[in-house]
Every structure is written in C-alpha cells, then in structure tokens.
Design goal:
Layout: E1 9-11, E2 15-17, E3 27-31, E4 34-39, H1 50-63, E5 71-76, H2 87-94, H3 99-118, E6 123-127, E7 130-132, H4 134-141, E8 144-147, E9 152-154, H5 169-177, H6 179-188, E10 191-193, H7 194-199, E11 205-206, H8 212-224, H9 228-240, H10 246-261, H11 264-274
Parallel strand pairs: 4-5, 5-6, 6-8, 7-9, 8-11
Antiparallel strand pairs: 1-2, 3-4, 9-10
Helix pairs in contact: 1-3, 3-4, 5-6, 9-10
Length: 284
C-alpha cells in the first residue's frame, strides 16, 4: 500500500510526458494521443491488488499534467475486464486489518475513482467477460463504456457481506442507469448481462468481442483529434454540475464556454468553417 510510482518525464510548466511511462502492475502504452491501460492478469480474470490500486491512483493523477495523452482506453487482457479485488491478495488480508487500516484501504480505492473523474481526458472502458466488484467501479468511473453481449457486470459487494456503497457506487450508478435499477443491482449483487447493460444505458454500445478493443480505441482516437481542451472542460462540468442548481450550472457553463472561446482551437474552427475545410484541432 506504499507504492512509489516511477516518475514521468517532467516538461516545462509542470507538464509531463507519459509516452514512455513504465507501469508495474498493468500494461500501459500511448499511441497518437490515445493511452491504452490493460489490466494484465488474465489467468485470474485481471483482479486488483493493493499495489495495482495505488498505481492506478497515481497514474490517473499524473494524467492531469500529461500533454501527450488526449484520451484513455481501459481494458482487460484475455476474455475478461476485471474480477475486482484479488481474494488472496486483498480480501484475506483485509479480514486481519484493524479499523484504521481498513479505512485507509477504502479511502485509497475511492481515490482511484476520484482521480479518474478528475483527470481531463475522456476515459473509454472496453468491457468483455467478467466485470465485477471494483472492476465494475472502474467501468462506472469511466466516461464511455463499450461492452459485449457475453459480458457480465456485477456490483457484488452484498454477496460478500458488504454494503453496495463502495468507491462511489451509490452516487455514480443511479446517475447512469437510474435509482431503481441501481438499487436492484446494489442490493442483490446480481450480474447485469451485456444486452441489459446496453438497454439500461450502462453501455454506450455493444461490440463483437473480437473487435471491441479496436472499436474503443478508434472511438478514443476520434476524440483525441477533437478540441481536447474543450473536452476536458466538458468533463469537468459534467462532474461539477451534479452539486449545482440550474442557475448555478448555467453560470458555470457561461464561464467555462467563455474560457473555451479564448482557445486557439475555437479560432481554428472558425477559420476552417470560413474556408470550407475541416478544422485541425491541437488542444490549445
């Protein structure tokens, strides 16, 4: 739980490059602005450990300063997304921790979701097979979710004697699929099928298993070609406006949009429109 991440390359103005970042507990690569993060323990259905939680938290925090990453795809190796916390590496040790130790752990896992929601890059989850427990929260904390018909998503905390209120599930899930449906999943811990997940709005689309990752990466690449500063502003407003009234939200959006109107991308779009050309955005 005391993971010390490798330092990303420091750039002027407190910016960093993650193109050459060497992850320790999952695979991570950056290609043309799209970072692909792959949970890579397929023989165990890609469970999380204390160290992988901590590394995920630090990586998503670092993404806030990464100029070379415009969008993120998170996926699992093999035929599964993520089976949640590792039974032997996490669940067993948790039963032997005192209350301060347990609280430190649950706060750390919640910090992963906070970091995912705070990083400016849109996150696309590519979900196949098992997506359970903390894995379901990684999917839920993403901005866009692609799934397969054969996938099974379960917020299974109740099945191990825990509350469904884990890592922000009670705040995030009702906003995605509605209060009643979220209540059913969190109380029962049952699996949500791929077709059900798409019908309920948890998935943005269903893909064939053999093309799902490529589909998610292509979608992320399209976003990476867009006005990425503005995308970051959209993500920030989607997050902040949950706690605002309508009048406050309209004022916040007025300020956010005025900031975006000062960007070079806004001027590029105007000049491209006048010239009847497609704008080429650069994210500044």
């Amino acid at each position: 739980m005391r993971y010390l991440p490798g330092q990303p390359q420091q750039l002027p103005g407190n910016r960093t490059s993650l193109a050459d970042h060497q992850a320790r507990h999952f695979r991570f690569n950056v290609k043309q602005g799209v970072a692909t993060l792959t949970l890579d323990r397929p023989e165990r259905k890609n469970p999380l450990t204390f160290d992988s939680y901590a590394e995920l938290r630090e990586l998503f925090r670092a993404l806030a300063y990464a100029d070379d990453v415009k969008t993120v795809v998170i996926a699992g190796a093999g035929d599964n997304f993520c089976s949640g916390g590792d039974v032997h590496d996490i669940i067993g040790p948790l039963t032997r921790l005192d209350m301060p130790g347990m609280l430190a752990f649950t706060r750390m896992t919640g910090d992963v979701v906070k970091a995912m929601r705070a990083c400016p890059q849109p996150i696309v989850a590519a979900i196949d097979g098992i997506c359970a427990g903390a894995g379901a929260l990684l999917a839920l904390a993403s901005d866009i979710r692609f799934g397969t018909a054969r996938s099974k998503t379960a917020f299974l905390f109740a099945r191990v004697g825990l509350a469904g209120c884990d890592m922000g599930a009670c705040a995030l899930l009702p906003r995605v699929i509605g209060q009643g449906r979220a209540s059913e999943l969190l109380y029962t811990g049952r699996s949500m099928s791929g077709e059900e997940a798409e019908r309920w709005g948890f998935y943005n689309r269903l893909c064939a298993p053999e093309t799902m990752l490529a589909d998610a990466q292509a979608f992320a690449a399209d976003l990476a070609q867009g006005p990425t500063f503005a995308h970051g502003m959209t993500k920030k407003m989607l997050q902040q406006e949950w706690n605002m009234g309508v009048d406050e939200a309209i004022e916040a959006e007025a300020q956010a949009q005025a900031i975006c109107m000062a960007t070079n991308d806004f001027h590029r779009a105007y000049h491209a429109f006048v010239a009847k050309q497609k704008p080429v955005f650069e994210g500044d």
